[in-house]
Design goal:
Distance between the termini: 96 Å
Structural class: alpha/beta
Bound molecules: uridine-diphosphate-N-acetylglucosamine, calcium ion
Helix content: 10-25%
CATH topology of the largest domain: Spore Coat Polysaccharide Biosynthesis Protein SpsA, Chain A
Oligomer: single chain
Strand order of the largest sheet: 14-17-20-23-26-29-32-35-38
Shape: elongated
Number of helices: 10
Number of domains: 2
């Protein structure tokens, strides 16, 4: 009966997700570890390489469909106008497809922890057993709320929903996970026989199991050894629990691949982050998006990197970086903010209380203290003095500051862009540089100091003559 072709994966995502209590975000669009729940499920489903990948949408369908088009343009969204149950949802999905031949896998859109390996094992078992239905089951300490798997002499007879179960059935700890592999033709014929004669007045997908068994078709169950993986996310408590489990999985994989994670409990790593062996991650670190860290780099403590590239041997301490490229052996932090378009060359430094955006800092150049560098190009081996500011914005447009190689700017220099400082030039401390400084020159842009002899004594004399009032003067 069963052909081993994977004809379709159907993802169920039409439900309202009432228990999330969100007016802004549909349930399956809540994020964890860098992807929405739906993206996790769709990515896993796509890895099985089905001929059709269908997502059943209903509530907030515009938002969900738009997101799907972004994360998997080849997936097909099918609208279930009324949420008449999981069986109805699958029926609607199949009606939108051409006649299928082979295996149909169904997964719920709210199970982001499911792995490709688990689905592959389910499909493999299904293909070997030539069953009409192979359901993924889990044995739970607390099965409350789940459909119970009813067996007789070991073989699966059917699934009874919690709300429809009598007390002895509720004692059963083996539950349906809403993940199935079906023979397409057998599924189609069972779906046409579903009724709404149950506690929720819905067409239950779980009833397909009993219908197949009743028709004398073989039904198999694949008991997952990792029950946590099948967890459904219905509210925000379960969302944080799922996020923690996924974090544990991701961090453990990095550790096994040679990354030192000092404190897994305070380390968060998105799915697409890449860490080389011999990276060290200190506590309180969050690595987001497409961040990559090369071998020997040390990140943290208390650092957040988003879409940031860190080179070999670099040190990033108590920093917040977004869209930055940090070169090999560069040093960042503590208390440093690197914004999109920042590029630090080899051995470069962005020190304490320094903010940099859209700027290039050449090899060996340093911005060690208390500075803002925006829209600047800085050559090699240059040193930007403490408290320098690039005045890159005139209130209407941004302008560039160009600084050559081996430049030394004095403390508290303001570089009013557009301005160029030539190779080897210096600026005097406290200068407001509004004109280009040629190579090798010293730019001085400040009022000359004058000292007024005897000024303090004269002031005291005046204060005494004014009497008490004088004392109150600041
Ligand atoms: C379902 C199963 C239950 C199983 C549990 C595992 C049924 C009847 N029950 O219960 O046996 O133990 O999952 O987590 O199948 N959906 C639609 N259209 C609908 C109804 C639901 O697309 O008309 C989607 C939901 O968005 C959700 C999924 O199907 O992603 C499961 O629905 P949900 O209401 O969460 O089912 P459970 O009560 O969890
Ligand atoms: Ca659910």
């Amino acid at each position: 009966m069963t052909d081993a072709r994977l004809a379709a994966v159907v993802v169920l995502a039409a439900g309202e997700g009432t228990r999330m209590r969100s007016t802004l975000t549909p349930k399956v669009l809540h994020p964890l570890c860098g992807r929405t729940m739906l993206e996790h499920v769709v990515t896993t489903a796509r890895a099985l390489q089905p001929e059709h990948l269908v997502v059943v949408v209903g509530h907030s369908r515009e938002q969900v469909t738009a997101h799907l088009a972004e994360v998997d343009p080849a997936a097909q969204a099918v609208v279930q106008e009324q949420q008449n149950g999981t069986g109805h949802a699958v029926r609607v999905a199949l009606e939108a497809l051409p006649e299928l031949d082979g295996i149909v896998v169904v997964v719920p859109g709210d199970a982001p922890l499911l792995t490709v390996e688990t689905l592959e094992a389910l499909v493999a078992e299904h293909a070997v057993s030539h069953a009409a239905t192979t359901l993924l089951t889990a044995v739970l300490d607390d099965p409350t709320g789940y459909g119970r798997v009813v067996r007789s002499g070991g073989s699966v007879m059917g699934v009874v929903e919690h709300k429809d179960a009598d007390l002895p059935t509720r004692e059963i700890r083996e539950v349906a996970t809403s993940v199935y592999a079906f023979d397409a033709a057998a599924l189609q014929s069972a779906l046409s026989k579903l009724t709404t004669d149950n506690a929720q007045g819905e067409e239950y997908l779980t009833d397909v199991v009993g219908l197949h068994h009743g028709a004398g078709l073989p039904v198999a169950a694949h008991v997952t050894p990792d029950a946590g993986q099948t967890m459904g996310v219905n509210d925000r408590v379960q969302l944080s629990e799922a996020r923690r489990l996924l974090r544990d999985r991701l961090v453990a994989a990095h550790q096994r691949a040679g990354v030192t994670v000092v404190d897994p409990l305070t380390t968060w790593v998105d799915v697409d982050v890449q860490l080389a062996p011999d990276v060290t991650v200190h506590p309180g670190t969050q690595l987001h998006g497409r961040t990559t860290v090369a071998s020997g780099a040390v990140i943290g403590p208390d650092t957040t990197l988003t879409d940031t590239e860190v080179g070999e041997g670099a040190q990033v301490v108590r920093a917040h970086c977004d869209g930055a490229v940090i070169g090999p052996d560069a040093a960042v932090g503590p208390y440093t903010y690197l914004r999109p378009g920042t590029r630090l060359g080899r051995g470069a430094k962005a020190g304490g209380f320094v903010e940099i955006k859209a700027s290039d800092l050449g090899d060996g150049s340093k911005v060690p203290h208390l500075s803002y560098v925006g829209d600047a190009t800085i050559g090699e081996r240059s040193n930007i003095g403490a408290g320098n500011i690039t005045g890159n914005y005139d209130g209407q447009a941004k302008h560039r500051t160009v600084i050559g190689d081996d430049v030394r700017t004095g403390s508290d220099t303001v570089l009013v862009a557009p301005v160029t400082i030539g190779d080897g030039a210096y600026t005097a401390a406290g200068s407001v540089i509004t004109e280009d400084v040629p190579a090798g020159a010293l730019g001085v842009g400040r009022a000359r100091q004058r000292n007024i002899e005897g000024w303090v004594a004269r002031r005291r004399g005046r204060a005494a003559a004014d009497g008490d009032q004088g004392k109150q003067q600041p």
